[in-house]
């Protein structure tokens, strides 16, 4: 994949990450397969636009995920590299009652680079209609632009939301941007 989709401040070279929400509000820690914290993020409160700044495990600014509209009607979020100030990708939701479908796009052309789609239509519908259904962890599948499987996001039963992000084959997707997008799905889906 072209280096234009790399996030300059992080190097996510592992193929498995654990995302865990803290007990209080939308605050997340991302650990690699060795257990080291590689990213931390939290939703900024009281902002007109939703904003999730992420820092590296060392506390350095990594990237920010920011809603594209004040009311988030369009359902799009830009992932901006903290090192360059450039938008790396845009994450947008295709609204549907029966499937949670997120597309990772080129910020300039709108070209689809990857898709993250819920595996259960029934659970997706219930999550939109019944608040308690959000207690059931969701599962997503990650596809490249051609629709080929490249990874999974699997929720776990826990007091805090917890997910495992696995990238089986990242050769055709912007891995760091896809991992970043998968890390914030929980917060975005539960808004």
Short description:
This protein has 191 residues and is mainly beta. Helix content is 13%, strand content 40%. It contains two helices and twelve strands.
Describe this structure in words.
The structure is a single chain. The protein is 13% helix and 40% strand. The model is unreliable at 122-134 (pLDDT under 50). It is mainly beta. It is built from two helices and twelve strands, in the order E-E-E-E-E-E-E-E-E-H-E-E-E-H. It starts with 15 loop residues before the first strand and ends with a helix. A hairpin with an 8-residue loop joins strand 5 (61-67) and strand 6 (76-81).
In which range does the helix fraction lie? 10-25%
The stretches of 5 or more residues where confidence is low (pLDDT under 50) are 122-134
In angstroms, what separates the terminal alpha carbons? 32 Å
Strand content: 35-45%
For the largest sheet, list the strands in their spatial order: 1-2-3-4-5-6-7-8-9-10-11-12
Structural class: mainly beta
The number of helices is: 2
Report the oligomer. Answer: single chain
- Count of beta strands: 12
- N-to-C SSE series? EEEEEEEEEHEEEH
The backbone outline, from C-alpha atoms, is globular
How confident overall, as mean pLDDT? 77
CA radius of gyration: 15 Å
Major sheet details: 12 strands, antiparallel, barrel
């Amino acid at each position: 994949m072209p280096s234009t989709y790399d996030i300059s401040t992080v190097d996510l070279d592992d193929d498995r990450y654990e995302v865990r929400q803290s007990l209080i509000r939308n605050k997340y820690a991302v650990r690699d397969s060795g257990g080291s914290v590689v990213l931390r993020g939290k939703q900024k409160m009281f902002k007109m636009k939703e904003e999730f700044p992420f820092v590296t495990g060392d506390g350095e600014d990594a990237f920010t995920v920011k809603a594209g509209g004040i009311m988030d009607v369009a359902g799009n979020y830009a992932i901006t590299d903290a090192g360059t100030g450039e938008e790396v990708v845009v994450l947008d939701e295709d609204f549907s009652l029966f499937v949670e479908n997120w597309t990772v796009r080129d910020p300039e052309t709108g070209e689809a680079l990857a898709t993250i789609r819920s595996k259960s239509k029934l659970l997706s519908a219930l999550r939109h209609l019944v608040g308690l259904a959000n207690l059931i962890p969701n599962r997503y599948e990650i596809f490249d632009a051609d629709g080929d499987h490249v990874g999974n996001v699997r929720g776990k039963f826990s007091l805090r939301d917890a997910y495992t992000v696995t990238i089986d084959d990242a050769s055709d997707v912007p891995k760091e941007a896809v991992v970043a997008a998968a890390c914030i799905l929980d917060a975005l889906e539960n808004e």
